[in-house]
Structures are given as structure tokens and as C-alpha cells.
Amino acid sequence: MTKKIVRENGQPVEEEVLDEEIIREPQEEIILTGTKTYDGYGGGSGDYGDEDVSYDPDAVYEILATPLDTIHITSGFGQRWGRLHSGVDFGLAQGSAIYAADDGRVYFSGDGGGYGNLLKIDHGNGMQTYYAHCSALLVSSGQQVSRGQKIALVGSTGNSTGPHLHFEVIINGNCVDPLDFLKL
């Protein structure tokens, strides 16, 4: 949507819609309910309900493409030293290609504190994916990406002990086990 907004003293006093375009039709939303508040991993914060969520943790949904050519899990999802490890770590050589797990729009590309170089992709259906510790980010915030598109390179930036991809799946603000959504 493109709007013309007239402001007086910084406050909008008049708005006129100049153009409207539907980019993508709405999709059914995946809805989960979480109860646990988590104070963040890697410097971030948010509500990551890993208890009492309405998705079946025993199911494998297989709706995402694997983000790497070779899968070697070095650390799984779950509690670590009294806090939630909110994703899965895949160990791979520095500079290996990282791919988008599904179509979506990049809504963050940059320094993620403890996450190091971080990409966040919104897939438009209540699901986001995070790609952390990258050595290089190949896409920018606001950019549309396609499933399987090369988006970054494996690295060891931020709070990291060696080259790997920290991969998260977030559904409506809840971190869930990424392995439930990948066919490995």
C-alpha cells in the first residue's frame, strides 16, 4: 500500500491511499500456544514456549527444506545447563552454503549479538526461521527469498565455539524443535 500522509507538528492530519496491491494471498496460520517465558539465547529475548504447545512433538511435519547440503548435528534442541537451546546446531566447514528452508521475506539481516551474523526469514504463515553464526550474509532485509536459495555461508561469529549453523524454527513466537519440520 502506498499512502500520502500530511503531517503538522509531526502528527498525521490527513491520509490518502494512492495505491494498493495484494502481493500474496493470505494463508492458513499455524497456531501454537506457549506458556513458558524465556529470557533469550544469544542476547535476544522473547516468549519461547517449549511446554504445552499445541503441535505434536512426536510428529515430523517435513515441510521445510534442509538448510545445508550435508547434515551433521552437533547440538540438538532442548534444555542446556538450565536454559533452552532454542535451535539445532549443524556443524559444517567454514564458508559452506546455507539455503532458505522455504519461501519468505528476510526481515533481519545483520549483527545478532550472541547469534553473530544472523538472518531471520518470515515465511508468512506464522513461521519464521533463524540462521545464526554466518560468516557472510548474501541477502538483505526486505528481500524475498525462495526455498533452496543460497542465503548465507557457514561461520563462527558471535557466541560460537567453531563453524556451524544454529538453525531455529519459530511458530507464532514459540521456538520449536526444527527437526520436527525437516526430512533428514
What's a concise summary of this model?
With 184 residues, this protein is mainly β.
Describe the protein.
The protein has 184 residues and is mostly beta strands. It has a single domain (27-181), classed as Glucose Permease (Domain IIA) (Distorted Sandwich), CATH 2.70.70.10. The chain is 0% helix and 40% strand. The chain contains no helices and 15 strands. Strands 3, 6, 8, 9, 10, 12, 14 and 15 form an 8-stranded antiparallel β-sheet that branches. Strands 7-13-11 form a 3-stranded antiparallel β-sheet, with no helix packed on it. A two-stranded antiparallel sheet has the order 1-2. The chain is elongated, with a radius of gyration of 18 Å. The model is unreliable at 33-55 (pLDDT under 50).
Q: Which CATH architecture?
A: Distorted Sandwich
What CATH calls the topology is: Glucose Permease (Domain IIA)
State the end-to-end CA separation.
40 Å
CATH class: Mainly Beta
Oligomeric state of shown chains: single chain
The count of strands amounts to 15
